[in-house]
From TrEMBL:
Domain of life, source organism: Bacteria
Name under which the protein is recorded: DUF2344 domain-containing protein
Residues covered by the DUF2344 domain: 148-293
Stretches that traverse the bilayer: none
SUPFAM superfamilies membership: Radical SAM enzymes
Length: 367
């Protein structure tokens, strides 16, 4: 009943919601936290009759609380669909059976994806129903006509706190806003065909992340970079794009090495750590030298520089489907060798991802 009032109520319900909050209603979406009594008290105090909102049948000409919101679909179309639903009548897929003039296409920039793929020619819709919403993007595109584009992008500043799931959502939206001819997967819940390399840990900046986009038609790398960057958020910037073989190995199966720069300091260490022959420098050098023995995920490591009380380490670690080096495990590895003081990570950045070919590290654009 409370959910019905909140879903169908108008602005007068707002005062009752505030009153319920003042009576202690918190996290009421959880059954163990929900209590009906304070809600009923709040409704009574503010003159709200729940039955008026929940059980009353509304006239078709009545002004609804959400009529001022424009989702693109017209009220007349929704009423027509309401009558058809009561009669058990179906509305066929407009991509294959003609336009129903719902109001969504036009001002909102939407377009029938089948019409777009047919490039202005009238598609043969009648008598054929697609097995899934993604079918128009798959059935009309042969494998040899698909185009895979590999992009390299950054993940800086506040964007470093985005999880991999957040990045998937971000690029799924950005490719639509950029009007890229992205292909979709088949199935009940089609997804844009975008695949990523192994993600950096949350909180780690990166100068070289990769993603592969499968497109229905070619687009110049320069134009693709420009379109994406116009719609991406601060901190995420596409640096490079290149068309590659659609049958090229996936990023997750290809990437083997991640390159990190890691700024560290010793807990309680003074600026003497940076002296040429200081004891702190000696400890760091011993630690870096032994990293490949302390962790099988470390391929190579070196002490790159010392400045004040901090040091900059450069570490090549394993990456990909076979397991990855985790920079945040360094303090634990330090404790295995030195117990009197701790290692503190000041800043971690991933500067590149690579794979091996002929014993040499190769860039992901070198296929």
């Amino acid at each position: 009943m409370v959910e019905g009032v909140l879903a169908r109520g108008d602005r007068r319900v707002a005062e009752a919601v505030e009153a319920a909050w003042q009576k202690g209603c918190r996290f009421d979406g959880w059954s163990e936290q929900f209590s009906l009594a304070p809600w009923l008290e709040a409704f009574a105090e503010k003159g709200i009759d729940p039955e008026f909102y929940v059980t009353r049948e509304r006239a078709e000409e009545e002004t609804l609380p959400w009529d001022h919101l424009d989702c693109g679909v017209s009220r007349s179309f929704l009423l027509e669909e309401y009558h058809k639903a009561k009669e058990g009548e179906k509305t066929l897929d407009c991509r294959w059976h003609g336009c129903y003039d719902c109001g969504l296409c036009g001002d909102f920039g939407c377009a029938n994806i089948l019409d777009r793929l047919c490039e202005g020619k009238e598609p043969q819709r009648q008598g054929k129903e697609p097995p899934s919403p993604a079918e128009p993007l798959r059935s009309r595109i042969r494998d040899r006509d698909k185009f895979k584009v590999r992009i390299r992008f950054t993940k800086r500043d506040e964007a470093r706190f985005l999880s991999q799931l957040d990045m998937v959502r971000l690029f799924s939206r950005v490719v639509r806003r950029a009007a890229l001819p992205i292909l979709y997967s088949q199935g009940f819940n089609p997804r844009p065909q975008i695949s990523f390399g192994p993600p950096p840990p949350v909180g780690v900046e990166s100068e070289g992340e990769y993603a592969d986009l499968m497109l229905a038609r070619p687009i110049s790398p320069r134009e693709l970079v420009a379109r994406l960057n116009q719609n991406l958020i601060a901190g995420v910037q596409v640096l490079q794009a290149q068309i590659i073989d659609p049958k090229a190995r996936s990023l997750m199966s290809r990437i083997e090495v991640a390159d990190y720069t890691i700024e560290v300091r010793l807990d309680g260490a003074s600026s003497g750590m940076a002296t040429k022959d200081g004891p702190q420098k000696e400890k760091l050098e011993k630690f870096v030298t032994s990293l490949t023995k302390l962790s099988d995920k470390v391929i190579a490591a070196r002490l790159q520089s010392l400045s004040g009380s901090t040091a900059l380490l450069r570490i090549l670690g394993r990456a990909g489907s076979q397991g990855s080096f985790k920079p945040f495990e360094l303090p634990d590895l330090w404790k295995e060798k030195f117990t009197e003081e701790g290692l503190v990570l000041e800043k971690v950045k991933r500067v590149g991802l690579y794979y091996y070919r002929g014993g040499e590290l190769k860039d992901l654009f070198e296929i």
